[in-house]
């Protein structure tokens, strides 16, 4: 079974067209699946629309937070409540293209996690430049080679996320965290679409300062991660 986990915060305009797109792609795969929305304490009617979509489609389910808790919390709740052996994540703003999901899933025969890489970004110049700088700094300080850590379109084998202990802000470092646990990760170029509905919830600067503190925590975790091999036991 495949679980498509979609965190959403005030994305009422996007949910119905996004659901139609995801249903079309997933039904075409011929495998059992679910769409699991996580409402991160929305105030614009997102929850009501999720209820309606769940009534209309047996594949659609949702969990709703009492208050807004952020994307990492929404991801953690999605991982916990998902029923699938394979978990797909994507944003609710329709900038990720669901048609890329089958291509990413094809790589699961060789890798444990497949990450989307937005090779051609449809964002403002400021957002593009800030993202490149942020990725460069992250990779330098964390000794990584992740091209696009901010792309939410990813496919995981369930075993990779079952034992993850997440803290706020850690959704940006999921590839690093699963590699620390010994799993294999690959990036694949994916389509990136301009936002046509709703409004962005993140500015450039509120990402920069929060992400830098989280980066220092991940750097510490990588240095202190426990690694050992049993040579003999009696």
Quick structural gist:
The chain has helices at 12-29, 46-56, 71-81, 101-106, 125-142, 159-162, 174-180, 204-224, and strands at residues 2-8, 33-39, 60-64, 86-89, 113-118, 154-157, 185-190.
Explain the layout of strands and helices.
Elements lengths: L1 E7 L3 H18 L3 E7 L6 H11 L3 E5 L6 H11 L4 E4 L11 H6 L6 E6 L6 H18 L11 E4 L1 H4 L11 H7 L4 E6 L13 H21 L10
Parallel strand pairs: 1-2, 1-4, 2-3, 5-7
Antiparallel strand pairs: 4-6, 5-6
Helix pairs in contact: 1-2, 5-8
Notes on the protein architecture:
- The chain has 234 residues and is of the alpha/beta class.
- The chain has a single domain (2-224), classed as Spore Coat Polysaccharide Biosynthesis Protein SpsA, Chain A.
- 41% of the residues lie in helices and 17% in strands.
- The chain contains 8 helices and 7 strands.
- The protein has helices spanning 12-29, 46-56, 71-81, 101-106, 125-142, 159-162, 174-180, 204-224; strands at 2-8, 33-39, 60-64, 86-89, 113-118, 154-157, 185-190.
- It has a 7-stranded mixed beta sheet with strand order 3-2-1-4-6-5-7, sandwiched between helices.
- Helix 1 (12-29) runs parallel beside helix 2 and helix 5 packs parallel to helix 8 (204-224).
- The chain is globular and about 60 Å long.
- The termini are far apart.
- The model has no long low-confidence stretch (mean pLDDT 83).
């Amino acid at each position: 079974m495949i679980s498509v986990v979609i965190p959403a915060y005030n994305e009422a305009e996007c949910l119905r067209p996004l659901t139609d797109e995801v249903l079309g792609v997933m039904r075409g795969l011929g495998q059992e699946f679910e769409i699991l929305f996580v409402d991160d304490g929305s105030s614009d009617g997102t929850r009501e629309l999720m209820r309606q979509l769940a009534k209309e489609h047996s594949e659609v389910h949702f969990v709703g937070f009492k208050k807004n808790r952020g994307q990492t919390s929404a991801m953690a709740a999605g991982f916990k409540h998902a029923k699938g052996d394979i978990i797909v994540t994507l944003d609710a703003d329709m900038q990720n293209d669901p048609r890329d999901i089958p291509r990413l899933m094809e790589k699961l025969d060789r890798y444990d996690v497949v990450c989307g890489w937005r090779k051609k970004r449809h964002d403002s110049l400021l957002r593009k430049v800030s993202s490149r700088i942020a990725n460069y700094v992250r990779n330098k300080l964390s000794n990584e080679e992740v091209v696009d850590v901010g792309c939410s379109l990813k496919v995981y084998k369930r075993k990779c996320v079952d034992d993850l202990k997440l803290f706020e802000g850690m959704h940006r470092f999921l590839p690093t965290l699963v590699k620390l646990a010994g799993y294999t990760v690959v990036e694949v170029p994916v389509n990136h679409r301009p936002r046509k509905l709703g409004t962005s919830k993140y500015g450039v600067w509120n990402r920069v300062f929060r992400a830098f503190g989280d980066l220092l925590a991940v750097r510490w975790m990588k240095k202190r991660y426990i690694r050992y091999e049993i040579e003999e036991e009696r």
